[in-house]
Each structure stands twice: as structure tokens, then as C-alpha cells.
Amino acid sequence: MRLHYHPASTCSRRVLMTAHDLEIELDLVPVNLFKGEQNAPEFLQLNPNHRVPVLEHDGWVLWESCAIMQYLADLVPGQTLYPGEPRGRADVNRWLFWCGQSFMPGIGILNWENSIKSLAGMGAPDPVEVARAEQGVTEAANILEAHLGHRQWICDSGLSLADLAIAAPLADQHRAKFPVTHLPNLQRWFMQVQALDAWKQTAAQAL
Questions:
Q1: Which among 61, 65, 9, 62 is positioned nearest to 33, based on CA atoms?
Q2: Contacts with 71 (C-beta within 8 Å, 6 or more apart), sequence order
Q3: Does residue 207 carry a pLDDT above 80?
Q4: Does residue 159 sit within a domain?
Q5: What is the CA radius of gyration of the chain?
Q6: Domain GST N-terminal spans what residues (predicted)?
Q7: Residue 70 sits in which domain range?
Q8: What is the pTM of this model?
């Protein structure tokens, strides 16, 4: 299996963590986003959305990080990251969808405005965009904070794809100034994720 990825991409990292936990070996193909390699015609044949990660498996192509995570889990009999029981699986799906719809939009904006923009030499953060994103992230993070009040992991089944997907972007919480560092339950849970070997072995490295 081949994974087109960028090592600093949090969407790529959630897939790498999943593969590590499942003991799936991936042939890694770096895509340098800062050089615009995601816009190359050959890459657009794999993913017309200009985004990483992209998985190739026996001539079949799959994009969208959470879909890749689910696919990898389904390849491994007996794995526990993605329960086979309907309610357990629905619970994980719920939080994966929540991550994409409620959490990541604001996270992506803050990461761009407070971090990537300066790295790319594209000017100062837009205060209007930052304020809008902070409101969205705060609302979503407060939901997660309350949910984690009496839980070790996000889902009742234990460590799951939901934990890996939601934790991945929090690697940038300080640099991108996410309004989450004051939330005790979220930070306690995030420390647990950071203690996982899958987290430690997928730390971003510059291209």
C-alpha cells in the first residue's frame, strides 16, 4: 500500500497513527505542499481536491483521511480501533463526522492564519477570520470537554479511530493558538494520546 502524504499534515498523521497501531506497513510518498506538488497533474489524477493523504492499494485509490482510517481498520481482523458491533461503530462514526463538520473547520482556519501563513511568507493573520474560527473551535471544544468529563477515551469501546482523528491537529495547539489549552479534561485526554507509541512514532519531520 502506498500513502501520499505530507509529514506536517495532521490529516496525514491520523492515517499514519492508524497504520502504526494496526501494524500495517505503508510505502510513504511525500508530497511537498509548500512547493505546490498537490497541484501537479499527476497528483490531481489521484485526488482532484489537491489534498493529502491519498492511499493507493492494488490500483485502487482512496482519499479523505477518515475514510482511509476506516478502510485500514477493516483490513485487520480482530482490531479494536473501529468496532464491528453496530452501535460501537456508529459511536466512532459519530465522532469522526463531528470532527470533520464541527471541529476541523475552525482548526484549519486558525492553523492557516496563526501558523502556516507566516511560514509561507503570506502576511499577518486576518483578525476577522481568527475571531470567527476561535468561536467555532471554542463551541466544539466545550462539547468535547464536557463529554470527556468521566471518560478515558472518546468512545465507550476504548481507544478508537475517533481519538486518533481528533487528537492529530492538537499537535499544533500552541503554535496555532487553538483556544483549548485551558480545558482540563481535553488536555488530560490529549496527554494520554501523546503517550501512545503511535503518536510518538509519527512526529512530524520537515521535508
A1: 9
A2: 55, 57, 62
A3: no
A4: yes
A5: 17
A6: 1-80
A7: 2-75
A8: 0.95
**DSSP characters for 88-155?**
HHHHHHHHHHHIIIIIHHHHHHHHIIIIIHHHTT--S--HHHHHHHHHHHHHHHHHHHHHGGG-SSSS
Mind listing the pLDDT tens digit for each residue in 85-115? 999 999 999 999 999 999 999 999 999 999 9
User: Which residue, 23, 42, 75, sits at the end of a domain?
Assistant: 75
Q: What is the pLDDT of residue 205?
A: 55
Domain count, the chain: 2
How many residues can be counted in the chain?
207
**Are 29 and 128 within 8 A, CB to CB?**
no
Q: Within a 10 A sphere around the Cβ of 142, how many other Cβ atoms?
A: 14
The average confidence (pLDDT) of the chain is 95
User: With contact defined as beta carbons under 8 Å apart, do 20 and 45 qualify?
Assistant: no
Residue type, 47: N
In a domain, 99, yes or no: yes
Long-range contacts of 192-198 (CB under 8 A, 24+ apart): 192/152, 192/153, 193/163, 193/164, 193/167, 194/167, 196/17, 196/21, 196/159, 197/20, 198/17, 198/18, 198/20, 198/21, 198/164
Closest listed residue to residue 32, CA positions, set 3, 4, 6: 6
Place of cell 485500514: 72
Structure-block grid coordinates of residue 188: 488530560
The reply to whether 46 and 119 lie within a common domain is: no
- DSSP letter assigned to residue 56: E
